[in-house]
Amino acid sequence: METMIPADHTLRARRAINAARAVAALYAGVGLVAMWLAPRVPYADAWRFLGHFLQAPFPRDIFTPDNGHHEVLPNAVRVVDLHVFAAQQWLQVAVGIVLALSTVAVFWRGIAALTDARLRAAALLAVVLGLFWLGNIRVLAHGNESVHAYSVTLFLVLGMQVLASRREGKGGLRDAVVAAVCGVAAAFSFGSGIACFVAYAAVLTVGRAPWRQWMVLAVGLLSTLALMRWDGGDGIAIQFAPLQQLELLLRWLAGPFVYAFWLFLDPALADKIPLVAARAPVHAIAQAYETTFGPVMLARWPHVLFGLAGLIWFGATGWRAWRRRAFAALHGIGLACFAAAVGMMIVLVRFDYFGQHPNQLLAARYVVWSSLFWAGLSLAVIAQSRVPSRALAMTLVVAVMLLPSQLWMAELGARMRVVAEQTALAAAVGVIEPDLPLGESVLGELAAALPVVRAARVAVFAWSEAQWLGRAPVPGQLLPIDVQDVHVMVVANSIGVPGRRVRFTHGGVPNARVLLLDGDGIVRGIAMRDRGEQWIGWMQGTEPAGTAPQITIPKHQ
What we know:
- The chain is α+β, with helices and mostly antiparallel strands and 557 residues long.
- Helix content is 60%, strand content 8%.
């Protein structure tokens, strides 16, 4: 039954509700744009995946675990993208968008049970922030990542939704079976998916579920572990160091706060502010922070306090929900438990890795999970709020405070896109400079995948420009274009003989890429737009020395 809003507050409440919906639409819209603008080239793990998919027969290509992850369902999408769309990433991007939107849609079904429109608006905004805030740019802006991350979130919320119905008898057993199946599907989407069973257990606990549902869930978990073992899981050696791992978990949970205020915590980032008037004061704040606590990605304080406060707050919220039988909070409690469980898995399994690479604990790729902890905590608090107007106002305040971070996280996403595209271009030509930023792409994995990717003519080798490499065009097939400021430099090559880097200026070509024609009439390179009217490209070989290439485009374009 809808809670009545006093007449004198109706207009104010309606405005606040509309504002929350508008802000939620803004965040969702920006997040979806980031997903759509994801680079249409392999990046990071995608190079390794391509090499595996092209060499392993079906069904090993889909079922073989990778780095401890059993990504059966995402791999199915990736393999279809490879064989039907030549690994151009379109299918992965589209599926990732559908999965993310479906996650929101299922969450909305649970949120709709809240009796006050203000609470529903606040809860929807909290969910959208957890999924689409650009702090999650590492997943949002890469189709290869979004297809597994949002597969997990969808199965997570589907399982929680059926359990939250709290049906009894055979209906309740069927719900438990559905949730167990969702848990299996999530676990075979990504490693973090098995934490869905922790979320389901939390929902059963607060919901006072009968023992039969617990038994079904336990069977589902044991079946998942058995299937993982059968699928080729080798088991993972886990080192226990409880106090150190607790500290890592608390710092990991603080990840969203780091990225939300990153500009004010990192002097190097503050130095890049284009507005001179703002640069000095922001740099002073960031420098003071670094002087006091150390580099932001390595600092212990105040990150530990943020994480500890979050866990204590969540513990109190969960206890209150269990004691008061606040079933409306089930989705939030389940979501927060899931994220906390993912964090515990990460610090257990990656403990040695973080010892060797301490700056990776707060890597952007983990924020998609840690942000869900705070979204879940917010949901649980909102659902139990006795002052809906205050809950809505506080959620709006958080959303507004996060708005500035959209700018620097979008800039991070743009830089990652440039890195991915330039790496792909250099790989297509076969000249990867030792100093070329590769981001999270591993040179050895990229080099190992290139021969089979080239032979299959997929990914970058499916480009029409790549088909021209090494060919001498017939006169009239290519059209020369006038460029300025051509600079050619011989560079070392990490994957072969030295080559050349070519830079030039041109603003009139709409093409994404152009061909670089050598003095002997053979196409030996490709260039792409770098920024503005600046272009960058690479060419095979070093001869003829000192000769500027001819910049051309195919005539049919």
